[in-house]
Amino acid sequence: MTVAKRSVKEKVVDLLKKEKALTVSQLLSHFSISDIALRRHLKTLEREGTLEAKTVKQEIGRPFLQYCLTEKAQKNFTQHYEQLSVSMLDRLEKQFGKDFVEALITEWTEDRMECYKQQLLPYKNLPDKMEQLLTIQKQEGYMSSLKQIDPQRFQLEQYHCPIYSVACNYKAACHTEELVFQELLPNAKVKMNSCIAAGEQCCSFLIEEK
């Protein structure tokens, strides 16, 4: 019973991370529980400071409630060591310059790319590679989702960035993400369409087979 309750709460948080704000009926469509049971979970999350209810007014019709994550909950998606990483990079920049820090980020990217390549090696076609890439991303905490637009095009979306604080301070970290995907998928064209560090809802990449 406890496990089921916890999984519902986690799924609510995941949904609100992706959709920003949802009504009770919209949330309910993702569960096989009663309206009363869901509202009980929502109340618990409100008490914990994870989400809040906001009244939305309409020109026609009655106001309605939408649930969204609090600022506290948004911060909880960020790894605790992020601020330490940023602080260390700032110190290195002061001592050795920004070019040195960007070189470190590039080196880290290359190491990560090699690790990805090994895991993608058994997969030959783009759909299989994309599915495996999605699995790797989820394991790294990116909270990614994959949409197949048509047989040749995919959209990869990241609703959480484990290096968010670093990316906000060092834009090279965002740029290298696009380069990683391009290197891993040589038979596809990769384009970054949105970025969390730029204030957008998610990092979004359009991947199109050449």
Description:
GO terms for molecular function: DNA-binding transcription factor activity. This is ArsR family transcriptional regulator. It comes from Gracilibacillus salitolerans. InterPro entries: Carb_Metab_HTH_regulators, HTH_ArsR_DNA-bd_dom, WH-like_DNA-bd_sf, WH_DNA-bd_sf. With 210 residues, the chain is of the alpha+beta class. The chain has 2 domains: 2-76, Winged helix-like DNA-binding domain superfamily/Winged helix DNA-binding domain (Arc Repressor Mutant, subunit A), CATH 1.10.10.10; 82-209, Muramoyl-pentapeptide Carboxypeptidase, domain 2 (2-Layer Sandwich), CATH 3.30.1380. 54% of the residues lie in helices and 20% in strands. It has a 4-stranded antiparallel sheet with strand order 4-5-7-6, covered by helices on one side. Helix 1 (2-19) crosses helix 3, helix 5 packs across helix 6 (98-120) and helix 6 runs parallel beside helix 9 (172-184). The relative contact order is 0.10.
